[in-house]
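pinging the channel bc i need a second pair of eyes. not urgent but kinda urgent?? the chain im working w is below, pasted from the shared doc
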Amino acid sequence: MRKHYEVVIGLEVHVQLTTQTKIFCGCSTEFGNSPNSQTCPVCLGLPGALPVLNRQVVENAIMAGLATNCRIAPRSIFARKNYFYPDLPKGYQISQFELPICEHGHLMIETEAGGEKRIGITRIHMEEDAGKLLHSDDPGTGSRVDLNRACTPLLEVVSEPDMRSSDEAIAYLKKLRQIVMYLGVCDGNLEEGSFRCDANVSVRPWGQQEFGTRAELKNINSFRFIKEAIEYEIDRQIDIVEEGSKVVQETRLFDSNAGTTRSMRGKEEAHDYRYFPDPDLVPLVIDEAWIARVREGLPELPEAKTRRFVEDFRLPAYDAEVLTAERALAEYFEACAALHKDAKMCSNWIMGEVQRKLNDDGRSIVDCPVSPQLLCGVLTRISDNTISNKIAKTVFEEMWTSGKDADTIIDEKGLKQVTDTGAIEKMVDDVIAANPAQAQEFSEGKDKLLGFFVGQVMKSSKGKANPAMVNELLCKKLRDA
């Protein structure tokens, strides 16, 4: 049934900025403090309190605009978005409407078919967040309001309706999140609501030019839930059309437990926000010199960094994409590659052992207890045949918990690799002598038994024998036997 319909998706993403103070006052934006402990007359909306724009918020908005190929408006204005809700003490939200700071941008995403697709960005505007209602499970206690979040700075990134599947929507969201995290303007924490999304979803018969009636899915803060909500909504709308009914324009909420969306309010109840320019805030004027200064300070963005890793370090495209997924991970790799000449070896260990231990411990690369210097100490001892790759993993495990360097661990535990030809030759002779039947089978063409003999020699040496020398001597002696 789906193949007869085209899906149309547009996204509105709220990006919470990582400034130390709020957008229009000096209150802290730190997350997790006791309710209503980070408020003042401005963010409480008390009479006579006047907002003062945080310059860093503007800088962050310009950075986000430049990184998403937007035009930066030389003049933009703030507006009052009027609505009434318990967590909005002023009775209006300061936002931007007719003249936003950034317009007409785009991002390129990878599609399911493997090609690139351009997703337009209509606008990026600055606004303040509202507070938060805290609901109790105890009957009769009601709800309480925490205004710590009120006046926290946000960027709202509004896409064009250019996405045609839930996969494209997720690809766009992940690309946008990666960029704002690279810029350092947002921590990208979905669980804390630092990066959250509203999705506008509609369907239309293939070939129809006009858009179908859309439903807006509100405030979803998990990639999995966004995908599930869009998928459910697509099926729901197609079912309605197939039944001969009409889709109603409405706002819907996603129930993650049931995996369904439910109506929040219909078109007839939609808010008339009655935007008008905020009389307390003068127009924001941004000259070319300011834009140029911000552009000069932009970090290398993921796409450019990925290309450079392939070109400069001769990494496979897959490795480069994994290593540049996070800016901190890319910086960790570059620090390793500067210390150890084999960039591919660095990549393998970071994507393998380092990432495995980080995942096991629930840590990020920023909290990695093994520094690039320590890791490269292990890699150097593999390269100069002091230890085997297998023993190196034992050294790495000890390093992770103790913080000791590779040489100290190797010396303390006696892990130095045996490279003495005579000693390895004796072990090889002893193993062959102890397994005459298998040696005979090998000589008759059962080559897979080589692995058995290698394992026996490595066991005899407690893993310390040089594997390459073991293989070479075994092949020679077994074939000569």
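so The first helix runs from residue 41 to 44. and The longest strand covers residues 116-128. — does that match what u expected or am i reading it wrong
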